[in-house]
UniProtKB/TrEMBL annotation:
Domain of life per record: Bacteria
Keywords, comma-separated and alphabetical: DNA-binding, Membrane, Signal, Transcription, Transcription regulation, Transmembrane, Transmembrane helix
SUPFAM superfamilies hit by this protein: Homeodomain-like (SSF46689), TPR-like (SSF48452)
Native organism: Belliella aquatica
UniProt key word Transcription regulation: yes
PROSITE patterns reported for this sequence: HTH_ARAC_FAMILY_1, HTH_ARAC_FAMILY_2
Transmembrane segments: 381-400
Name of the protein this chain belongs to: HTH araC/xylS-type domain-containing protein
Gene3D superfamilies named in the record: Homeodomain-like (1.10.10.60), Tetratricopeptide repeat domain (1.25.40.10)
Keyword Transmembrane helix: yes
Length: 589
């Protein structure tokens, strides 16, 4: 089944430097209100919203154009955090239309970046592109490297939404390299999160998980709870697509505890319910819970005007009705979903929208055929049972055989149709992936207008390898900590799969991290810990049996313990005990 799942990255440049002194205490107090309100955005959104309104009415009463412009930008910021992107766009445009921000290019550049983000959520990619272009032009005019690479992050993510993956990767890796060299941890984490989202869309699953883990660790260390929660939501989408349902449930339970306390913003809450809906559909097959979750998400996204996610909710409800067998409601939603596609891809050509519709219709037919095949398989089972029961009555044999042959013929025709549809889906998707036709959206236009310098093609592998090494070091540190502090090696049946499950990574990544950092295989690495533990027991407990030492050190058998001890220490456990006792006695004499 086709799921249009987009992973939403929010990048907001610093809004403005507030608190400039003007004559009159009321003006200064209003400036302080704005400054305080911005500082509360990640802590108490309702209070921040109240302060934005107070500041605005104060500015109107004072008839101060500069304060009104600042208030508009503050109100735009608050509306964005509330998920009201349409209102946020209105306030940003009012602020940008003021003389105050026309004359302050650095602040205007930041507002244009923020405006572009809001246009993305409204699926207005043409306006988003124009805003980002304006922001980048000002940054280049000012010669501000920081602002240039901030714009690169937004431009890179816009390219990923438009499925222009190569250009997206160029921009994001270039920004990542810059912020890494500048030791700017917050922006570095933001780049890692963007790349994780990109690789998830591109179906580069292992790289996506790797970059999510790096991003989450950096955000937890250097960022704030709001960014960490959003990244965790994005990560959960990827895990859901990879069908790692156990991890999805664990993460959803953690996020739910925050949402239940009312500490999450409306966009995060809406995305949480959307993931919950698809989780109940795909994993637990609990259609009642799925419907409740999807309805909650629908209301929230509709209130926010978030068209991109709204189409996902509609698709989820279509799948729900199909699985329930309610094909009347399913057909009613099909037209609504296709209309939503037209709105979502407003900037696409007629041919591109038609391609999207064709792919969707094929997937719907494939879903219905799957349902039909399930019923046929069930009917076939009933027929077989019936044959066994009725075989004793020869008068019914001919009738049952005849019905079975007809059903079998229908089944063969259905299967042939299913194969044709699946091959057609593969052909269209392959065509899209190779760039021959299909969903091009604005990719060619964006690629032409945002083409990078030739130097951006160089050293991409080196940059990726550098962060792969950082990932291996981070993963190895966690493994080492589990062994040293948690003494995980004492578990006799410990496997690579157990570590992979504990750390939310693949077995291949565990083995590579250990090999990269120690040059050893997993078995050699864990046996070193076990032999060291055995030596400690032999040296400190004189009455303990050799056999007990092996089991208490994590070995599953005595022969294995003896063999590995001799191999790694050059002597048997008995010889080591004698040497240890001799050294203690000799040292005490």
């Amino acid at each position: 089944m086709l799921k249009f799942k987009y992973f939403l990255l929010i990048f907001l440049s610093p809004l403005v430097s507030i608190g400039q002194s003007n004559s009159g205490s009321s003006i200064e107090e209003t400036d302080i209100l704005i400054q305080k309100g911005i500082s509360l955005l990640n802590q108490d959104l309702n209070q921040s919203d109240s302060l934005s309104n107070i500041a605005y009415y104060n500015a109107i009463a004072l008839e101060n154009d500069s304060l009104i412009a600042k208030s508009h930008s503050f109100m735009a910021y608050v509306a964005y955090y509330k998920g009201d992107y349409k209102t946020s766009i209105e306030y940003y445009n009012k602020a940008l239309g003021s003389d105050y921000f026309k004359n302050k290019l650095d602040r205007r550049q930041a507002l244009l970046n923020n405006l572009g983000v809001n246009y993305e959520f409204q699926n207005n990619y043409a306006e988003a592109k124009e805003a980002y272009q304006g922001s980048l032009r000002i940054a280049e005019e000012l010669g501000d490297s920081l602002s240039i690479y901030q714009s690169y992050i937004n431009i890179g993510f816009l390219n990923s939404i438009l499925y222009n993956f190569r250009d997206a990767e160029k921009y994001l890796l270039s920004a990542l390299d810059f912020f890494h060299r500048q030791n700017s941890k917050t922006y570095e984490a933001l780049c890692l999160r963007n790349l994780a989202n990109l690789y998830s869309l591109e179906k580069r699953e292992e790289e996506s998980i790797k970059y999510y883990i790096l991003a989450i660790n950096k955000i937890l260390e250097f960022g704030n709870e709001f960014d960490a929660l959003e990244t965790q939501i994005d990560f959960n989408w990827t895990l859901l697509n990879l069908e790692r349902y156990t991890l999805v449930k664990v993460n959803q339970d953690k996020i739910r505890s925050i949402i239940d306390k009312g500490k999450a913003s409306p966009p995060i809450t809406a995305n949480f319910h959307l993931i919950e809906g698809f989780y109940f559909l795909d994993s637990e097959k609990d259609l009642k819970k799925a419907e409740i979750a999807l309805n909650k998400a629908f209301i929230l996204f509709k209130n926010q005007g978030n068209l991109r996610q709204l189409s996902q909710v509609i698709e989820g409800r279509m799948i729900l009705y199909a699985l329930r067998g309610d094909f009347t409601q399913h057909r009613e939603l099909v037209s609504e979903f296709l209309e939503q596609l037209r709105v979502t891809y407003l900037n696409s050509s007629t041919d591109e929208i038609k391609t999207l519709e064709d792919i969707h219709q094929l997937n719907i037919q494939a879903l219905l055929i799957d349902q039909l095949n399930s019923k046929i398989a069930f009917n076939r089972t009933l027929i077989i049972v019936g044959i066994i029961l009725l075989i004793l009555s020869s008068g019914f044999i001919f009738l049952i055989s005849r019905k079975y042959m007809r059903l079998n013929q229908r089944n063969e025709k259905t299967n042939l149709k299913n194969i044709e549809l699946i091959e057609l889906i593969k052909l269209i998707k392959s065509s899209q992936k190779n760039g021959d036709s299909g969903i091009k959206l604005l990719a060619e236009e964006v690629q032409e207008e945002y083409s990078m310098q030739g130097s951006m093609d160089e050293n991409l592998d080196q940059k990726i390898n550098a962060f792969e090494k950082e990932y291996d070091e981070l993963l190895f540190d966690k493994i080492n900590k589990m062994f040293i502090e948690g003494q995980l090696f004492l578990k006799a049946d410990l496997k690579v799969a157990d570590l992979a499950e504990e750390l939310f990574v693949s077995e291949k990544e565990i083995s590579r991290a250990i090999s990269s950092m120690t040059g050893k295989r997993f078995s050699s690495y864990i046996n070193e810990f076990r032999i060291q533990k055995a030596k400690e027991l032999l040296a400190s407990q004189h009455k303990i049996l050799i056999k007990e030492v092996g089991f208490k050190s994590g070995f599953s058998s005595q022969p294995q313990f003896q063999r590995k001890f001799k191999e790694l220490s050059g002597m048997t456990p008995e010889q080591f005990r004698h040497v240890s006792e001799y050294q203690k006695t000799n040292g005490n004499s």
